[in-house]
């Protein structure tokens, strides 16, 4: 027995887990193990010495938690990658007579049309048009915008109207340029810490009259304040809401950490540099063919996001301490059984996740977790006989501070569920974790 134990130790030690791009979706059963000796009885597990390759900080997870690829949705496993909802509200700015913007009597309807169109576009990511004949994957974006009134305030719709001669207008260039001014945001913003405030503003009437001023639909993301300015809709308030929605989604992309993609400095290898043509021409120029449809370019399409861009947004939304995470509707903190998942094969969760239901590792399933996981209130992780849960120095908690039920391990005769600790996983917002298996009695149905 002593010889076998020594052999097991050195064999398993040589198979230390990695967190590479290749393992970001799938994992293998070759793992260096350190079973939690403080919570798992000796008769159920062999306690092995452990040489950790993880961070010395308990619960910090592995290097892949900070890698873009770990946050790109897997179309085959969207059950484990729920749609994120960004809280937004709208502010319509008018002069002191309530004029010079979308008429108030139709503004609420128009705001909802913009939101509907923006969400429709976010649900239907386009295939990238550049580079020509590319094979860039068209992934689901998994982000929606949610109109959010103030909680507990009667008749609050999340759509506000402000009459202010000094602050109602938007000037994008010239000596009176004010597009970057913060005063209108600071004065009229509502729930700026948790809700993206969208200000619908007119170009100044004097600017519109000038032949040198282009009063088009334009915008500006003000990341530090949590607000977006959109201007130009008032010129034709009956214009298709989809055109305004494209501009809104572009600015939301900036708010979530994306840069313009026609340059070489946006941090993504799958967004090729190009001349940033608005639409096709027939004059023999590069714009005869090199037309982008990327949301973060200036073009007539604005409907495509690449895997890298999508991953970057979700990594920012998943990382604790980043301002944009505050804009998430925290519906994942409360239990929703419709979003419970069952792991039946081998999966590696290489990015942080906010789950909305129970997680069950079924017989034959292996769930390898390398980063933070938030479980919903009253949610539970269950490891069935023959299932295996591997925790790689990560944290499991409830992101809103509610209590979840912890981890439950089942056994059936000589078969049992298995929980493996690599490094020092951290558990918060739950009772002390007890991994002693309990007997599983199959349903007679």
Please provide a written account of the structure.
- With 445 residues, the chain is of the alpha/beta class.
- It folds into two domains: 2-66 and 338-439, no CATH class; 80-318, Collagenase (Catalytic Domain) (3-Layer(aba) Sandwich), CATH 3.40.390.
- Helices cover 16% and strands 19% of the residues.
- Strands 1, 2, 3, 4, 5 and 6 form a six-stranded mixed beta sheet that branches. Strands 7, 10, 13, 16, 17 and 20 form a six-stranded mixed beta sheet that branches.
- It is elongated, with a radius of gyration of 26 Å.
Low-confidence stretches: 1-17, 21-55
Strand content: 15-25%
- Silhouette: elongated
Structural class: alpha/beta
How many domains would you count in the coordinates?
2
Q: Order of SSEs, N→C?
A: HEHEEHEHEEHHEEEEEEEEEEEEEE
Provide keyphrases for this structure:
2 domains, 445 residues, Collagenase (Catalytic Domain), alpha/beta, six-stranded mixed sheet, disordered N terminus
Topology:
Elements: H1 2-13, E1 84-94, H2 104-123, E2 143-147, E3 159-163, H3 183-188, E4 196-201, H4 205-209, E5 218-222, E6 227-231, H5 241-255, H6 307-318, E7 341-343, E8 346-349, E9 353-354, E10 359-361, E11 366-369, E12 373-374, E13 381-383, E14 388-392, E15 395-397, E16 407-412, E17 415-416, E18 418-422, E19 426-427, E20 438-439
Parallel strand pairs: 1-2, 1-3, 1-4, 4-6, 7-10, 8-11, 9-12, 10-13, 11-14, 12-15, 13-16, 14-18, 15-19, 16-20
Antiparallel strand pairs: 5-6, 16-17
Helix pairs in contact: 2-5
